[in-house]
Structure formats: structure tokens, C-alpha cells
Write a structure and sequence with these properties.
Pfam families: DUF7730 (PF24864)
Distance between the termini: 32 Å
Protein name: DUF7730 domain-containing protein
Number of domains: 2
Strand content: 5-15%
Shape: globular
Order of helices and strands: HHEEEHHHHHHHEEHHHEHEHEHEHEE
InterPro entries: AN11006-like, DUF7730
Length: about 350
């Protein structure tokens, strides 16, 4: 049997090629956290992936449920399994929706049981799709020209700035909102946000308004990940411009999921260190860089400052900035030009 290296993100992702094409987002996230596709023998019943470090096996269905499912049910998704064995070195790469990642740490741990109980009370059976979708499509609204309908939607949908900052509802929540929405006081007009729930036809037409010619800004990769999960595949298919502060343990899985956004064209990167990788970099940092450099097809890549606390950040005069721009602007899905040696970037 031919040996296949799985020391880097591209190597691990390659093992899923041709086998998980219908669940691309799951495969990319699994590769980011250290998993490879496990090809079982013919007599095996289960199919899934296995951690390249600790060999922990996870069934394919469980992974898809956890990594592509509804974020509202994340507690149930992660309760019955773990992607790694205890003390696995790959635990350095964090999944923001895991209970220990969402609630753990200095601030959120003591509220774990309280928040989990709230989520369990909110979980309701899925409401079957009714004939309201058919009714919506036969409404007189659809007799109007598409341009006029879009103008009507833009007047009803909440007004968003050209650069819209996305933030968690609170510091230990998996739900995100716009900064303006979080800071708003007084009664809220819920009729505006409910437009997208009117019917499937209106949802599909109006959704584009939220993403066209608008940049979404994120204070960290975790918030970007939660946003990408919240908007679902339909939103990721339309997302075009982001501004994100990088350099955290969630970078790898976030950029892996971001690579499933086919219309992503502009990205501002804020990295609070002058180089991509330094000697003896930890796994979470190396995998985060690998997943970032795997992005492609962008037209505009910029580097922003990281505030007064980080005067030495990655910017244009530095060689690593040129490397990032070169890799991210190469043609979509074309092979990268990065050479990896023993799992590390050879610069």
C-alpha cells in the first residue's frame, strides 16, 4: 500500500477527494482539525474519518451533523462523541461550537449548565414546510419586475453599513449579531428581520441584498466561524468581502470553512505578528496558516493594523504579506505554490 503523508492540511484534505464531494464543508473542517478520510474494508458498515494523531474514529454522519448542522443544536451534536482522544495534540485546533470551547475558559465555564438548559428549552421539533411557499410564489408580488421587488426588499430589510461588524450576542454565546443590533436600545421591529422567513422564493431573492457590495468585519476567527455557520450554505454561496483579525486557535477550521465561499473576492487580514510562522510554531498556528494559504480566487487582499497593542503586525513591506497575496489571488482551485517540509512551511 502506498504511503500518503498526512502531516499538512493539504495532504489530509486530499484523502477526502472523490469520497466526500457532497459534504465538502465537513471534509474541509475535518482536515483542518487533523482528520483524514478512513477507507474501511469492504465488510465494514461504518464510514468516517480518523484523527491522524490519536487515531480516534468518528462516523461520517456524526461529523456532518456537528460541522454542517444547525448551530442551535450544537450541544446535542457534540455530547455523544469527540473528534479526538483525551490529550491528543490536535486538540490545540479548536472548534468554536464544541461545548468546552463555547463555554470553557476563564469567563464562560461557570455558565455552562445555565446556557445549556436555555438551549434545551428552545429546541423545538422542526416545523414541516407548508403550502405557504406555494402561496408566496402565486402572490401578486411576483407579478412585479424583479428589480422592483428587490427595491421593496431593500426598504424592508434592516439597514446595514457598507462595513458591518459582526459580534457575539455575549461573550460565551454561539449566536452572532451586527454591532449596531447589539447596541440598539428600546423596542425592536421584528417584522424587518422576518422578511427572509416569508417564503423560499422571497428568501432566495432578498438574501443577495445582504451580501452584495458589503464587507463583514470580525474581531477574531471564532466570530467569523460562528457567522459562517449561522448564514448556512446559502449565505456562504453569496459572501463576497470580509475583514478578519487572525492569529487564534480557531483559524484553521474557520479558514477551512471560508474556502467553501465561491464568491469571496476581497479580504482584509489583520495578523498581530510580523511573520506567518516562527521556529517551533505550535500545531494550531501551522494549521491555521496552511488553511489560510489554501484560499484562492480572491481579487483584493489587504493587510490592516491590529491596534496600538500590536505595533508589529503583518503588512505589505514584509515578504510574508507578498506570499499571502500571491497564494490567495491565484486562480480558483489551482495548485498552491507552497512547499512544506516535515509539516512546516518552507520559506
Amino acid at each position: 500500500m502506498e504511503y500518503v503523508s498526512t502531516s499538512t492540511y493539504p495532504d489530509r484534505l486530499a484523502t477526502f477527494s472523490g469520497y466526500w464531494d457532497d459534504q465538502e464543508a465537513t471534509a474541509r473542517q475535518l482536515a483542518a482539525i487533523g482528520h483524514v478520510y478512513d477507507r474501511p474494508p469492504l465488510e465494514a458498515i461504518e464510514e468516517g474519518s480518523r484523527c491522524s494523531s490519536c487515531s480516534n474514529f468518528v462516523r461520517r454522519g456524526l461529523s456532518a451533523r456537528a460541522l454542517e448542522g444547525d448551530t442551535g443544536s450544537y450541544g446535542e451534536s457534540f455530547e455523544i462523541f469527540q473528534f479526538h482522544r483525551p490529550h491528543c495534540i490536535r486538540l490545540q485546533v479548536r472548534i468554536p461550537l464544541e461545548p468546552q470551547a463555547t463555554f470553557g475558559g476563564l469567563y464562560g465555564g461557570f455558565r455552562m449548565q445555565e446556557m445549556r438548559s436555555r438551549w434545551e428549552r428552545k429546541i423545538q421539533p422542526q416545523i414541516a414546510q407548508t403550502s405557504r411557499f406555494h402561496v408566496g410564489q402565486t402572490s401578486s408580488l411576483f407579478s412585479l419586475p424583479t428589480e422592483l421587488r428587490l427595491q421593496i426588499y431593500s426598504m424592508i430589510l434592516p439597514s446595514l453599513d457598507h462595513v458591518t461588524e459582526i459580534v457575539p450576542i455575549n461573550r460565551d454565546s454561539s449566536r452572532v449579531v451586527t454591532r449596531t443590533g447589539q447596541e440598539k436600545t428600546g423596542p425592536r421591529d421584528l417584522t424587518k428581520s422576518n422578511l427572509l422567513r416569508t417564503c423560499r422564493a422571497i428568501h432566495n431573492e432578498a438574501l443577495d441584498i445582504l451580501y452584495t457590495n458589503r464587507t463583514y468585519r470580525f474581531a477574531n476567527a471564532k466570530t467569523l466561524y460562528l457567522f459562517l455557520r449561522a448564514i448556512g450554505r446559502a449565505g456562504r454561496d453569496l459572501l463576497g468581502q470580509i475583514d478578519v483579525y487572525c492569529g487564534s486557535r480557531e483559524d484553521a477550521i474557520t479558514f477551512a470553512l471560508l474556502s467553501t465561499c465561491p464568491k469571496l473576492r476581497a479580504m482584509t487580514i489583520r495578523l498581530p505578528r510580523p511573520k506567518l510562522i516562527f521556529p517551533r510554531s505550535p500545531i494550531w498556528l501551522v494549521d491555521g496558516v496552511a488553511c489560510l494559504l489554501f484560499l484562492s480566487g480572491l481579487e483584493d487582499v489587504r493587510f490592516g493594523d491590529c491596534g496600538s497593542n500590536f505595533p508589529h503586525y503583518l503588512n505589505d513591506p514584509k515578504d510574508d504579506a507578498a506570499l499571502i497575496r500571491r497564494e490567495l489571488t491565484r486562480p480558483k482551485w489551482s495548485p498552491g505554490n507552497i512547499r512544506w517540509v516535515d509539516g512546516y512551511l518552507d520559506l
